[in-house]
What we know:
Shape: elongated
Order of helices and strands: HEEEEEHHHEEEEHEEHHEHHEEEEEHHEH
Largest sheet: 8 strands, mixed
Distance between the termini: 42 Å
Amino acid sequence: MEFMEGVNRKDTLEISELLAGDYTGKEVKINGAVHTIRDMGDVAFVVLRKREGLLQCVYEEGVTDFDIKTLKEASTVEVEGVVAVEDRAPNGIEVRLKTIKVLSEPTEPMPLAISKWKLNTSLEAKLAMRPISLRNVRERAKFKIQEGIVRGFRDFLFKEGFTEIRTPKIGAKGAEGGANMFRLEYFHRPAVLAQSPQFYKQMMVGVFDRVFEAAPVFRAEKHNTKRHLNEYTSLDFEMGYIDSFEDIMAMETGFLQYTMELLQKDYAKELKMLNVVLPKVDKIPTVRFDEAKKLVSEKYDRQIKNPFDLEPEEEVLISQYFKEEYDADFVFVTHYPSKKRPVYAMDDPADPTYTLSFDLLFRGMEITTGGQRIHDYNMFMEKIAARGMTTEGMEQYLSAFKHGMPPHGGLGLGLERLTMKLIGEDNVRETTLFPRDLSRLEP
């Protein structure tokens, strides 16, 4: 009988191990995918693609026990050779090959030139051949940075006493209401895909005080724009015992500060590869919704067309204003009109036509919506009645308020949008592994 006793340690090395150890002049074993081959005759450069980056290997006629003419790009291999210092190679080292063992070979030529520094192809082609296009090291780097954002979100909130939760994505009723819900049949009963974990994370504030989730949400919006997706990843948190909705904005500011430090420390290679300049997050200005509209209207001579919401052009101009006036990359816009916020949003006691809520704009785009929620059951029922709404399908949610809830609030942050603006892309599909929009269900 055999027993598993933990992770099997391999005799193959990773790039970080080669760089950390004293391997110069020593023989090592490496595996990876053949990223590109530059055959110079008696010498060939075989560049391997590994999870940590690229590794240059050198084939030498009469030294390497292999016929280089039979090696194909995209093959996976295991090689043995001697490590040497080479400043011109990626990471400053190369492996002078003794043997090459082919583990697998492609059956067709590569449809994209993934070994090029930039993929000179259309976004449509990149998305249609996503499993291949992501092998390009720059395309791959976008999602390493996205990994760092989620790491920062989790690590920071754990540090602040939050509990990670998992909420259902199939429900009886949408949290946001409206018509932008995907409806489905659930064992002969009507159901919807979750627009948000809002109801569940509020209920769980009554259990854990502070909760968060990083998970997909679904919006049946018939938009075909550069900023909209029908499935995206929302970074959500909800926290109880707040003094005001400013506690929520302060917590998000802390998350951004922590995450930018993490990216600078652990993702410097990817940031450099994509020429990313990290934003300033030492302090983030706040401005009231009505004041923001007025400021950009006056400075940029733009007529206010919609007094109840921000248009995309206004988001750009508000960000531009605060960059020019305060050198700020982010800006919180607060006190949105009540009629444009969900029923659970807490109205401002000083003027109930506005709410204790906010959006966070980043380089011209809204990436976060949040605010304080109504926690008093009677107040909640009054607002539901005032809006002419029904409580059907909300019974379980409202039961939490019947049995006492602390003052609380939270937010939802679009991961793909944040990544897009951070790395300087102009289409959210560039920072979505497998986008779902009006026309795309595959791959």
